[in-house]
Amino acid sequence: MKIQEILARLINGNTRFVADLLEGKLQDSKRRESLLSGQNPFAIILNCSDSRVVPEFIFDTGLGELFTVRVAGNIANSSTIASIEYAVVNMESKLIVVMGHENCGAVSSAIDGGDNGTNLNHLLAHITPAISACKKDATIDDIVKKNAELTVNDLKNKSTILKEALDNGSIKIIPAYYNLGTGKVDFYKIN
Ligand SMILES: [Zn+2]
Q1: Which of 87, 101, 86 is nearest to 148 (CA)?
Q2: pLDDT tens by residue, 23-33
Q3: Residue ranges of domains in the chain
Q4: 103 C-alpha to center of ligand 1: Å?
Q5: Quick one: pLDDT at residue 117?
Q6: Rounded distance from Cα 71 to ligand 1 centre (Å)
Q7: Which of 82, 88, 170, 180 can pair with 102 through a Cys bridge, CB separation 3.0 to 4.6 Å?
Q8: Dist. CA 112 → ligand 1 center (Å)
Q9: CATH topology of domain 3-102+148-186
Q10: What does DSSP say about strands 43-47 and 172-178: parallel, antiparallel, or unpaired?
Q11: Could you report the per-residue pLDDT of 102-116, keeping only the tens digit for each?
């Protein structure tokens, strides 16, 4: 599948989700059986752990269609980058979507700042650059979008595997924004 076709498939699935017209295909025993020998998801999604942001529903996909990496604030750290590298090397996933979402709790914690303990401090430190890159009057959702963009850059800059795949045109990485109320995904920076 070409990158443009993958994107179209995600957009079409999301349109069905928004309209309450989920097809819910490829989620049964027959599909499970067909996947026993392996997986070949068509897209990779890096998104937040937030329970309201579930890529398989949002894009109306079935088993084996999306390789999802979820971490609060959809950040690029060693573990999430390694997971994405695994998919790029071993499967034919050509499109990586970094999806932030409306009212992200991780982003608002990063804005609040303070000492949140070793583990959360590590995670929030990945979001701080997005806050610095935005103007003082930026809304949380401006920062969510900036964070997704900077995560796209991190994936490029912190991974030789992804950088090479980007340079030879075999993959594309794009940011996206999920609207909690409408269920719509905005691909706001497609070029
Ligand atoms: Zn979140």
Answers
A1: 101
A2: 999 999 999 99
A3: 3-102+148-186
A4: 7
A5: 97
A6: 8
A7: 180
A8: 15
A9: Beta-carbonic Anhydrase; Chain A (3.40.1050)
A10: unpaired
A11: 999 999 999 999 999
